[in-house]
Amino acid sequence: MRTLSIEEFAGARSETKQIHSRFISIEYLSLSDNEFEGFFSFELIANLSKLNSFNLSPRSSLLPVNGNLLAAKVSVECHRITELQFGNNSKLSSAPEGFACNQSLQQQLPKNIGKVLPNLEHFNLSNNIFQANFPSSKKNFSGSLPKEFHIVRYSLGILRLSYNQFHVQIFPKATNFWKLYVLIANNNLFNEIMDGLLHSESIYVLDLSNNYLQGVIPSWFDKIHFTYLSISNKLLEGTLPSAFF
């Protein structure tokens, strides 16, 4: 078996159990839109060495994530994961300790996230209650993103951060996310656009609406060919980049 999807399954209300060893070849696992109870631990899928896409978006928003995946074998196996979705889980206020492939998301992203998920292409943290900064590389949410997050810069294409409580500057330093083409970060508490996306010239969808942005629109916007750009409901000022006309 390579694909297992247990989506919108009304009977899935008991505590999650150990994924059976017969599913060892699974590459895609979706547990979204269910009503699981109790805690989910990434240790339950630690033996799925071929897993490259995991979706945990509970319908009930009552499924805290638990567990610690700092173990070496887990870190290595998680290198295959290219898609990770935690969207629509209001219980997640931070990413798990050790993360990627772990504890109730309560305070910050682990510092080793880039090492654990070096090939991540699609990262969805939208519609949670994450707080603090979301700085420059995939670091903890209470300061700058960890340096190790830069490891993901060559693979990350889609980043969804909407409807959280991230604040201060969004990517204050250049991230070198060369392949990033979609960034959805609306409805947060960001207050300034810095140079974090200066080198992300492939980005064509950018949504920073409904934040608390102030200051001027960065001049490097001229380098980017947006197909969708939303920076509405802000206090931005200055001259609009010539590329807008």
How would you sum up this structure, described in words?
The strands form four sheets. Strands 1-2-4-6-7-9-11-13-15 form a nine-stranded parallel beta sheet, with no helix packed on it. Strands 8-10-12 form a three-stranded parallel beta sheet, with no helix packed on it. The chain is 4% helix and 21% strand. It has a single domain, classed as Ribonuclease Inhibitor (Leucine-rich repeat, LRR (right-handed beta-alpha superhelix)). The protein has helices at 72-77, 113-116, and strands spanning 3-5, 28-30, 40-41, 53-55, 65-66, 83-85, 122-124, 131-134, 158-160, 165-170, 182-184, 189-193, 205-207, 214-216, 228-230, 235-237. The chain has 245 residues and is mostly beta strands. The protein is elongated. It starts with a strand and ends in an 8-residue tail after the last strand. Residues 7-18, 60-77, 90-107 and 134-146 have low confidence and may be disordered. It has two helices and 16 strands.
Outline the secondary-structure elements.
Elements (H helix, E strand, L loop, with lengths): L2 E3 L22 E3 L9 E2 L11 E3 L9 E2 L5 H6 L5 E3 L27 H4 L5 E3 L6 E4 L23 E3 L4 E6 L11 E3 L4 E5 L11 E3 L6 E3 L11 E3 L4 E3 L8
Parallel strand pairs: 1-2, 2-4, 3-5, 4-6, 6-7, 7-9, 8-10, 9-11, 10-12, 11-13, 13-15, 14-16
CATH architecture: Alpha-Beta Horseshoe
Topology, number of strands: 16
Multimeric organization: single chain
CATH topology value: Leucine-rich repeat, LRR (right-handed beta-alpha superhelix)
Question: How many whole angstroms does the radius of gyration measure?
Answer: 18 Å
Count of DSSP H/I helices: 2
Helix percentage range? under 10%
* Largest sheet, strands/sense/barrel: 9 strands, parallel
Distance between the termini: 52 Å
C-alpha geometry: elongated
The H/E string reads: EEEEEHEHEEEEEEEEEE
Quick check: average pLDDT? 65
How many structural units, i.e. domains?
A: 1
> What structural category do the secondary elements indicate?
mainly beta
Task: Provide the CATH top-level class.
Answer: Alpha Beta
The low-pLDDT segments are 7-18, 60-77, 90-107, 134-146
Strand content: 15-25%
Q: What is the CATH superfamily label?
A: Ribonuclease Inhibitor
